[in-house]
Amino acid sequence: MGETVQITIGKDYFDGYLARPADQISGDTKVGPKGGVVVIQEIFGVNADIKETADWLAGEGYLALAPDLFWRQERGVVMSDGSEAEWQKAIALMNGYDADEGVADLQACLDYLRGVGCAKVGTIGFCLGGRMVFLAACRTNADAHASYYGVGIEGLLGEADNITAPTLVHIASEDEFVPKQAQSAIVDGLAAHGLAEAHIYDGQDHAFARHNGMHYDAAATELAHGRTLDLFAKALA
Description:
single chain; alpha/beta; Rossmann fold; 8 strands
C-alpha cells in the first residue's frame, strides 16, 4: 500500500513512508475530502508497526506520511523493542534528537501533503511521536492532532495556549514513562483548554496501541483509534 518518498527541507531532504488510499492506488489521484495525516514514529524508526498504522489510516481514506525522524543522526533507522541492543540504540537516538529541528521537519511534511492535494492535514504520533504531536499542535499549522502516550508532555504545557487546532492526548494509566503525577498535570493543564482533550485509559501500559507489542490491548486501541478517527472526520473534512 505504501512507497518511499522524499521530503525537501532547505537544501536537504529526508525519506518518508507514504500510504495511499485505495482509490489513489487504482489510478484516481484525487485525494478526496479526508485529507492527509503525518504519522510520527516511536523511538524505533519507521518500522513495521508505524507502516501498519499508516496503512490503517490509508484504509480509512487518508493520505498517510510517516517521516524518518532520526535522519539527521542516521537515515533509515528500523528497529523493534525485541532486544536490549535495539533499546539502547533507540534511547541514544532519542536523547540526541533535536525537537526544534523535528518540528521543522513535521511542518515540511504538512506542506508536502498539502502540496500533493490535501486541503487539510493532521498529525498522529506515539511515544516520542506523541510528544512531537503535542509540539506540532503548539507550533505548526496542522488542522488536527492525536497524541498517544507522549513522553514529557507535562513539561510542554506552558505552550498549550498556542494550540489552534483540535488535539487529543491519549494517556495510559500505568505508563512507567508518564507517571501518575505527570498524568494529573497533563489532564489538569488541558482541562480548561477549549481545543485540547485528554483521555486516560485505565489499566493500560505504555504502547498499548503498538501492533504485536508486549502491552498491546485491542480494546483500548479500538477506543483510542475510534476517538482519533472521529476527530479527523470532523477536523479534516
